[in-house]
Amino acid sequence: MFKSKNTMITLVTAFIVIVSISFFGYQRFSINNKYENIISEANKAMGSEQYDNAVKLYEEAMNYKKDDNTKKQIDLAIVLKQSKSIYESAMKQMANKKYLEAIDYFNKVSKQDSKRYNESQSKIAECKKSYIDYNLKNANDSLKNSKFSEANNYIDLVLKQDANNADARKLKDDAAQAANIKAKENTSALGDKIMLTEDQAFELVKSKVKINEKQERLFRYSDFKNAPKIADDCPYYLIVKDAITPSGDEDFTEAEYQVDKHSGKIKECIQGQCKEIN
User: Fold this and answer.
1) Which residues are CB-contacts of 246 (< 8 A; sequence separation ≥ 6)?
2) Where exactly are the transmembrane stretches of this chain (predicted)?
């Protein structure tokens, strides 16, 4: 009787242990199964570039199991989302022929975004070529219309990107020669009229143009070191206004003033657009 009772207790205890192990085993299996299913869905979202959804799913998976790889995937999804947005902005700028702005965006595409990063490197080269071709065409058109200052502005934009560009350097020489020929033609038509001196031309411009001495400066073109020489028979003196950067390390041309040597008339040229200011 006593032995039978002990056997019964042993069987009941064994049954409880087996049921408990089965329950916790099933629960663990269920959790792992849910985790794997969510991770699978998150990976699919990543593959289809649904990065917000991928982050949401990875974070949900972390509720079932803390895992460093899952955390890394969340960080990667955030990087890829931003990189994709930057790439799309670059493509829009490129489509609008804003090549330098596009290059700036392409340079910000993450290396972790291998697909778009590799495409961006190709697009940067494409943008540089398009930018150079665009400005060379404009320089040629300006030169054909005897807009020498405008042509030089376009040429300088090319040389800033490619200092050794053969087409730009040839155009630079062509523009200088054409300007000299035009100047000789104009001088020939003027005849022997009384001429202003360069100093008189400078003072004339100075009296007409307001200068912020802290941010701008006015000087004669002849003061430029290594500047292409303007022919002596050019019908005007060239006075230049520069803007000075806060650091004082650099400056850039804001305007050019062509002072007729005979009439004293002043023509102001800004980015290729010229008008008389007398």
Assistant:
1) none
2) 7-26
